[in-house]
Structures are given as structure tokens and as C-alpha cells.
Design goal:
CATH class: Alpha Beta
CATH topology: L-fuculose-1-phosphate Aldolase
Order of helices and strands: HEEEEHEHHEHEEHH
CATH architecture: 3-Layer(aba) Sandwich
Structural class: alpha+beta
Strand content: 5-15%
Strand order of the largest sheet: 4-3-2-1-5-8-7-6
CATH superfamily: Class II aldolase/adducin N-terminal domain
Number of strands: 8
Length: about 230
């Protein structure tokens, strides 16, 4: 029997990178098809080991090509693909601040951008706890004051909020950038998308009802905490 060839060094990592490329393309196609993104707005990234994959600058998320996604190493140096999105620093800093974050999505979702124009519930919570699934699946979402797209100061603000919320045992999964839309994250694509979808839907409900409904009462929030370990 001929001996099996040895596995080349790096093969497992390379396979994981290829899988992440395919996942980013799948998510971008889905977001575009469902109207969460338009034109070249938004970006998606995935962390693989100590590398990051991110959509290129000015890429249309509905028409991504796996081989053109930007890949950066542990030092933030680009090693493959087209020029990385200008939000690369923010994505990398989120993953460094929250060890559970491995997939990050930023969109210009219509109702969430509209919410920043119409006025959020508060700077600490852009939406009130209207529904149980918003409380359980999304949680607190703070507003980040307007900065130009790609401004590195946004990463400082977001990572400080991640640290503060973690210390208070109410970790955040998302922030809302004023006039630019949400940034959400999670351990995988499915989790991050669930946060994004519930967040956008709740913003739509809030705006459709002219921002009149009362939040869930304290006893209902207590029940969600005790029954489902909701971080609210």
C-alpha cells in the first residue's frame, strides 16, 4: 500500500479561508436580494485565525467574487484580493474587543438609517424594548455620533462601549452609526444576521407606529432575564 501524502502546512487554514470567502459572498447576495443593502453601501468581514477577510472598497455586496475579497494578516497588512474596505480598522477592532466576534456586518438598512434621521429613543438605546425577541436577540444598541465613513475614531468609540457593556454584564451585539446604519457582529454569519434582521424589523415597527408604543414593562423584562438569560 502506498503511503498517504502528508498534509501540507497551512492547508486547514487555507480551507477555512476559502469557506469564509464563500460565506461572505453568500451573505452579501442574500442581503442585496432582500433589500438590506444597495449600490456599493455596506461591508462584511470574517475572522479566520488571526487573519481577516473583508469586502473590497466600493464593492456591491450582491455581486461579490470570492477571489477578490481582501485578506489581511495579523498585523493588518493586506496579503490578497482587492483593496480592503475603509472600515477594516473598525471590523478588526470589534473582533479584538469582543472575543466572541468573528463575523461583522455593516449595512445602510433603510429603516435604521431613517431612525437616526427621525430621532432615536435614546443615545444609549436607539430603540425601546418593544418585543421579547428584540430583547433576547438584539439587546442594547447604542448610537455612535456621526463621523465620516471610515473615520478611525469610530473604532475607539465602539470598542469603549463593548468594554463598558461587558463590565456591566449587558454585552452588546450591535451599534448604530448616525446616518450610516448598523454594525452587527457575532460568532458566525447566522448569529450576526439574526441580530441585523431583528434590529431592522424593530426599527420598521417603531417608525410605522409613529414611535408611540410603550416599552415592555419592568416585570416582563425581568421575566425575560430570568427565563432566557436576556442581557438587558
Amino acid at each position: 500500500m502506498n503511503p498517504q501524502p502528508s498534509t501540507p502546512a497551512g492547508t486547514a487554514h487555507d480551507e477555512a479561508v476559502d469557506q469564509a470567502r464563500d460565506e461572505i459572498v453568500r451573505v452579501g447576495t442574500s442581503l442585496f436580494a432582500r433589500g438590506y443593502v444597495h449600490a456599493s453601501a455596506g461591508n462584511i468581514s470574517a475572522k479566520v485565525g488571526d487573519h481577516h477577510l473583508i469586502t473590497p472598497t466600493d464593492a456591491a455586496l450582491g455581486f461579490l467574487e470570492p477571489g477578490r475579497l481582501a485578506q489581511v494578516d495579523a498585523h493588518g497588512e493586506q496579503i490578497a484580493g482587492d483593496r480592503a474596505s475603509k472600515t477594516l480598522t473598525l471590523h478588526r477592532r470589534i473582533c479584538a474587543a469582543d472575543p466572541t466576534a468573528r463575523f461583522v456586518v455593516h449595512t445602510h438598512s433603510t429603516h435604521l438609517v431613517a431612525l437616526t434621521l427621525a430621532g432615536v429613543w435614546s443615545a444609549a438605546d436607539v430603540l425601546p424594548p418593544l418585543t421579547p425577541y428584540y430583547v433576547m436577540k438584539v439587546g442594547h444598541v447604542p448610537l455612535i455620533p456621526y463621523h465620516r465613513p471610515g473615520d478611525p475614531r469610530v473604532a475607539d468609540l465602539v470598542t469603549a462601549l463593548i468594554a463598558d457593556r461587558a463590565a456591566s454584564r449587558t454585552p452588546i451585539r450591535a451599534v448604530l452609526l448616525d446616518r450610516l446604519g448598523p454594525v452587527v457582529w457575532g460568532p458566525d454569519a447566522a448569529t450576526a444576521l439574526a441580530v441585523l434582521e431583528e434590529l431592522e424589523e424593530t426599527a420598521r415597527l417603531w417608525l410605522l407606529t409613529d414611535r408611540r408604543p410603550e416599552p415592555l414593562p419592568d416585570h416582563a423584562l425581568d421575566e425575560l432575564r430570568s427565563t432566557f438569560n436576556a442581557a438587558w
